[in-house]
Amino acid sequence: MGEQGLLEMVLLWSAIAVAVSWLLPQRFQPLLVAACGVGLLAVVSPGSLALLALASVGTFALHRYALLTRTVLLASITAIAGTYLMLLGMSEHSVSSLDLRVVLPLGMAFYALRLIHYLFESYQGNLRPHRLDEYLCYQFLPGTLAAGPIHRCDEFLRDLRRRRWDPPQFARGAQRVLYGLVKLVVLGNYLIGEELWPLLAQWAGHPLAGGYLSVLLFWAKLYLLFSGYSDVAIGFGALMGFNIRENFHWPLLARNIADFWQRWHISLSSWCRDYIFTPVLSVTRKPYVAVLAAMIVLGLWHDLSLRYLLWGAYHGTGIAAFRWFDAKAGQRIEALPAAPAAVWRVFAIAITVHFVLFSFWITRALERILASV
User: So where are the chain's domains?
Assistant: First the structure.
């Protein structure tokens, strides 16, 4: 099934989930919403359905019967992460390729992290009491299955208990879905994919300009498609009375690389902060080591390869360097002659954008080099 077919299935099953979440008896709603996610995966990716169903029942059993000792927690996380990395290594494409017809089961990149999050929070006692149908509703929420966001379980359970019919929220949800579809269909697929991308052929004889434009359009399309899917998921969540975490917050306006990762793929970067950066920091007491570890994990989540290992190390080094520079030179910079705030803002945004663009250029160059070996 291609990208368009997947989008149609997400819209169909999410719309059915909205209907059953309000029209049918309340006690049946969590299970029926989960059934819509089951239906989506059954049509699009039966293998992913089998994996997520087995993992969801298993993790709930560990929580329900208080079996999560430290050893069991580590073994469970290792099994989930190991299975994901093994299948990712066998896949035809990376998570970031935008080609969803891959060996990797649909949505596994996102639900593997939700499963690990659930195990961590259960072990720490941070989850409110819940039933199996409520947990399945969290894991199988149709809109978030294909491309996230990686929402948090306790926040979802809170919304599930408090949800009430709210016309303004419903209207905002419908608007957000429409906004996401414009990004996906009009801007990402049509404007960039069909109108602008063919124009790159005119720059084939200019390696520098052509390479720069191709990376720029690739990143623009990646942002529009990924954030568009997130908008659709957040919108359908609002239609059902859930507040799904934001995933993007104007990342192209980031003033530095640390600010960028607080705006780009927020649900993933916050996951890495909570479950990689914080534990590594507590062990090593070295924030630069912790941020490097978090960004390397984030890179390998995209693709189990040398190029994304280096991509993660590049961004981690950039964040660490910025933190060091900001701590050491911040006061001296503030003492420099004043300039219009807009000038400094534009300069900082331009530097950040090109730092990120260069990381994509590196990975594409490494991909070509490794393919020629």
Answer: 3-162, 167-239, 251-372
